[in-house]
């Protein structure tokens, strides 16, 4: 018999692996951030990708059927898409059942529960496979207290969704550790949880408990310890600003790093809304963040320059640093700019 379960912050990273990454028939790269995140930050756990007809997004991993992936060592299919609303389309179900029949467990970070798909649940029961939802918060979350906690906290914030907050947090946490600092990456979304093996999916928490969940995720720590917290959404987002504000208040960051993708000027999935400027994003996060941490400051800006060549990216980083008067880097490119950003964050 299969067992439906969820992964909470306190559970060990015991997900079945390696993974076959399922992208369905996705056409928007921004919605495939789970697949890209696992490819980039947990490549040793990814054996290939599984696409449906009509898909226009690829991770570049080998294309495999579930049967081929199982033969290559995969033990779970991960739904690598986080679409608007977190819904699993009905026309994906047959493909998921095929994966179960091939011997793979199913791991999902969607809002929609795998157990809400009767045909898939029947197949999992029949074949003895697990259906695992990671976008489920712990039970009995506390109401936020607003009490200032010990230790140091850095939160990545942004001008929009899906532009680099998770990658920036992961890169900074790794950089802090490489410098000999005691640092933890704190995951707040389904992809980060899959990478880290634990965390709290902030956008699945009941609103009254969201700031409390952020407090729980980043408890009191030693004076020299750093929690590097994955940001969510944007304070300017017409749909998700509430999640961003709860995370800002509850995590009480000492430092924020503002993330932006140059060239993006409209909100992803809400094209009738313009993106805010980097300056306005810094100002609003500092204004609202002072409510629970009066000493909050901006450590700098992270730009996602993946669409630019090396020379153009370096010129842009230098120009934006001069314009904004702070450290500006692309953490994935690294280099002197990223070292300067780390230095500014650490103060």
TrEMBL record:
List each copy of the D-glutamate N-acetyltransferase-like N-terminal domain by range.
Answer: 59-137
The residue ranges of the D-glutamate N-acetyltransferase-like C-terminal domain are: 143-337
Superkingdom, natural source: Bacteria
By its UniProt entry, which SUPFAM superfamilies does this protein fall under?
Answer: P-loop containing nucleoside triphosphate hydrolases
Per the UniProt record, one Pfam family is DUF1611_N
| InterPro entries, per database record | DgcN-like (IPR011669), DgcN-like_C (IPR035086), DgcN-like_N (IPR035402), P-loop_NTPase (IPR027417)
Q: Which PANTHER family match?
A: DUF1611 DOMAIN-CONTAINING PROTEIN, GLL3100 PROTEIN
Which named protein is this? DUF1611 domain-containing protein
Q: Which organism is it from?
A: Lysobacter arenosi
